[in-house]
Specification:
The structure holds two protein chains of two kinds. By secondary structure, chain A is α+β, with helices and mostly antiparallel strands. Helices cover 22% and strands 34% of the residues of chain A. In chain A, 41% of the residues are buried. By secondary structure, chain B is an alpha+beta fold. The chains are: A alpha+beta, B alpha+beta. Strand 2 of chain A pairs antiparallel with strand 2 of chain B, so a sheet runs across the interface.
């Protein structure tokens, strides 16, 4: 398996993947697949009682997309950390695009690493997740 | 409202086995086609000691294998309707592979009031250890509690 970040340049876009539109089915399946049974994401009655107009995506669903986009290009055993802020709610119908650029090259305990700046955005370009990953080169 | 007296509270340890069948459900949901995850032979050919798991899956194991996914919320008297996931971080120390048996132990490590008490941010750190006692990862989440009134 080749590793496209072996010789990265700061500023280069190395993670870039779009995902299919998020449907109610996606949310139901993710609830089962992830063990996150919070009704906020699968029960419109519950979401309305909590003051939201409709159910919305699990933050971890969008983060799982980011993780997938990342490990398409970085071996999972080279990943040292992954973090995100859930900047805004990911609405039903969103089509998420995950991007990652090389923000910094660094060395930790003798290991060469890159810090990647990550985003997950919807079709309108609104940032839903903002985060970073540190990968070993 | 949750305050700093919650810091240090820890919750029941969770024992989780990394199972390929449950992983397949996750992969199918997310359209994951990467052979290193789906095909043990491909993972081996790529030089992995075992079949690796996706980077966010540790969070799922904690949710799936707990006897009570809402233990922390109940212990801290937090209404589920008020809760949002603010941040999530994973720090990886050693690989986790299919077949591993993990123990996940969560502790409240921070409480911060925001916007004049309108929101409380609770940091929960989960230490993850494998069947050999090896510390494989930490998962850190920030739980946002909306303290304003909502219709009951």
């Amino acid at each position: 398996m080749t590793n496209p970040v072996a010789t990265p340049a700061v500023g280069s876009l190395i993670v870039n993947k779009s995902f299919p539109r998020i449907t109610r089915t996606t949310l139901a399946l993710y609830a089962g697949a992830s063990g996150d049974h919070n009704p906020m994401h699968i029960d419109i009655d519950f979401a309305k009682k909590a003051g939201f107009p409709d159910v919305f995506a699990q933050g971890m669903l969008a983060m799982a997309m980011l993780g997938q986009a990342l490990t398409d290009v970085v071996r999972p055993d080279r990943l040292r950390s992954l973090s995100t802020r859930f900047v805004a709610i990911t609405q039903l119908g969103a089509k998420i695009r995950c991007e990652g650029t090389v923000a910094e090259l660094l060395e930790v305990d003798g290991e060469k690493r890159a810090r990647l700046a990550l985003t997950a955005k919807d079709e309108a370009g609104d940032v839903k997740l903002s985060g970073e990953a540190v990968v070993a080169l | 409202m949750v305050d700093s007296s919650a810091i240090g509270r820890s919750f029941s340890p969770i024992h989780a086995r990394v199972e390929s069948g449950r992983l397949r459900y996750f992969f199918n949901t997310l359209g994951e086609t990467n052979p290193i995850y789906r095909d043990p032979a491909a993972a081996k050919a790529a030089g992995f000691a075992g079949t690796p798991i996706p980077p966010t899956y540790l969070f799922c194991l904690e949710m799936m294998d707990t006897d009570n996914p809402f233990e922390m919320l109940e212990a801290l008297h937090i209404d589920l309707r008020r809760v949002l996931h603010g941040e999530q971080k994973f720090v990886y120390h050693a690989p986790v592979v299919v077949g591993d048996e993990l123990t996940l132990q969560s502790t409240v490590t921070g409480v911060t009031q925001k916007k004049g008490g309108a929101m409380t941010l609770i940091d929960v750190t989960t230490r993850i250890v494998n069947q050999r006692g090896q510390h494989v990862a930490d998962a850190i989440r920030v739980v946002v509690v909306r303290n304003q009134e909502i219709a009951s």
